[in-house]
Design goal:
The structure holds 2 protein chains of 2 kinds. Chain A is of the alpha/beta class. Chain A contains 16 helices and 14 strands. Chain A is 42% helix and 18% strand. Chain A has a 6-stranded mixed beta sheet, with helices on both faces. The longest helix of chain A is centred in the N-terminal third of the chain and has 16 residues. Chain A is globular. Chain A starts with 10 loop residues before the first strand and ends with a helix. By secondary structure, chain B is an alpha/beta fold. Chain B has a single domain, classed as Alpha-Beta Barrel (TIM Barrel). Chain B has 12 helices and 9 strands. Chain B has a 9-stranded parallel beta sheet. The longest helix of chain B is centred in the middle third of the chain and has 14 residues. The chains are: A alpha/beta, B alpha/beta. Chains A and B meet through helix 8 and strand 11 of A and helix 3, helix 5 and strand 6 of B. The complex binds pyridoxal-5'-phosphate (PLP). The site of pyridoxal-5'-phosphate (PLP) has 21 residues of chain A, from helix 5, helix 11 and helix 15.
Chain lengths: 395, 260
Amino acid sequence: MMRYNVDLNGYYGDFGGAFIPELLHANIEELRQTYLTILNDESFQKEFIQLLRDYAGRPTPLYFASRLSEKYHARIYLKREDLCHTGAHKINNTIGQILLARRLNKQKIIAETGAGQHGVATATVCALMGMHCTVYMGQLDMERQHPNVERMKLLGATVVPVTSGNRTLKDATNEAMRHWINHPKDTHYIIGSVVGPHPYPDMVARFQSVISQEMKYQLTEKEGNPYPDYVIACVGGGSNAAGCFYHYLDDEQVNLVGVEAAGKGVNTGQSAATTALGKPGILHGSKTLLMQTNDGQVIEPYSISAGLDYPGIGPLHANLHKTGRVEFIHATDDEAMKAGLELCRMEGIIPAVESAHALAALSKLSFDNDDVVVVNLSGRGDKDLETYIRWNMKQ
Amino acid sequence: METTNMQNRLDDLFKRKKHGILSVFYTAGFPYLEDTVRIAEELEQAGADMIEIGIPFSDPIADGPVIQHSNNVAIGNGITLGIIFQQVEVIRKTVQLPIVLMGYLNPVMQFGMEKFVSECSRTGVDGVILPDLPVDEYVHRYKQLFEHYAVRFSFLITPTTSEERIRLLDACSSGFIYAVAASGTTGVRGAFTSDQQVYFHRLKEMQLKNPFMVGFGISTHATFNEACRYGSGVIIGSAFIQALAENVQVSGFIHAVRPK
Ligand SMILES: Cc1ncc(COP(=O)(O)O)c(C=O)c1O
């Protein structure tokens, strides 16, 4: 699977790289030089796999959703990342990175979070390892994902409200990077998606790739064939999508679909649909597609979903978009909320509002009756109860 | 490509003056859009040796609150790179000091690097600092361009930069090299620590190809004097921008840092 993977210089085609100020060079260079050795080390692999199994609850089920299948005339499976400990795929990455941080002798952890799922997953592994944890979160996100703020605090993390910009994920990431610049020696920054300077996108994708690794054997058991016709995932920064696409990238017969948040509509100026609206640019240390003005100022995105409210996408997705390997579509707030409620009523599963965007793709794509479709259910909707209640009241 | 005036004011300055150079950084378009020109003129009158003009960016990750705020205000005022070059043209009608543009890569990339460097040359910008442009990217894609237009390019070094890497960045820099005083974002700091003194001393002993200027965190006469014992001079940013925000006179600020 070499074609879509990162090259030796940290690039995915034209995208990626490490566009960082010299202040971060030592940290990023240390990661770049050590991450593959550490990840491939036998003791690391053993510990990682064991924690994924015994602590995070992997493998997550691949569930055949019969009522959805009937409605959309296809064989629809849900990859149940929502059943992971802490309620989303984010824990796959934080377990990997905390094990790495320990091997780099770092004592403190920082993270950014949007929906709070990555913050909770980071606070969780810090508690597990007895490490100091600081999470940066936009003030707006702290309001709309309040339960996760309380969970992080309960787990012993310090949550720092970020008041710059739109007070969402982009701003939280800026602040986490500044913290790292100011505390370079003892601190590891656990980035929550496949964004940031090389080697973060590759590292996070590798940790999340367990999702498609499991899908392959689960589909073989259930369908007699590891290759589905479609894999569908929502894309914020793109980590759950990277994880469920990873082992299918070179199998061109598998259609890969990324769903971005269109907010109130792609052309309303209140959207987070980067592939539709973005141009190549540089943010948070990598060259990627970015929503920006003609003058190169980053545009504040909007989505009902805090986890998709980001003006860029990971550089590997920018390349997958450019090469056409992944089809990127988008779903509005309303489309996602409807799809989320539909899953509640038809399958008895309350999905995260992020994951609801992936579900919204079901009514946008046309399937053949025997098409095997996997939707990555990246997280559960407990954190989104308020959002669902408010949306329901509006209807 | 036609090459303009190959003389470079940065080269002249560092040839003429080996110690005690005062360079002042401020954000274009702050506090008001038109202030870019006024501040340059006042800096020259007040006796500054060199001017660094910041290109505002929405997401300045290496900057502390003061410069972040000035960036936001300037963007709100409508500043763009196009306007900055117009302002530099006006500045150049009266001001002879070397001018350096400093900013994050993205706005420059959208403007177009080739157009950016040729505009620098046309309007009278002598040097450029783009802290998030990787050195290998600069060497392979842009170094020739900068050399062609006789625009200097400075890299940053920090207390955590290895000796080997300092040599590399020095070799790739022209005009001067920017020695970041402390491992941290921009913003006012107090007196130097003994670690910082050791670092400055190490830089001085290395006999770099380029003169080095010490920046980040410097705000007082005392830190100015001390940094000048090691390098060719000092860059003051946040403290000056804070003073601008508080309507302090430019000349008063400069004379407090470096009494006449
Ligand atoms: C449940 C869930 N899904 C998806 C995302 C989006 O992130 P990514 O695109 O990295 O998977 C988030 C982010 O917070 C999330 O919480």
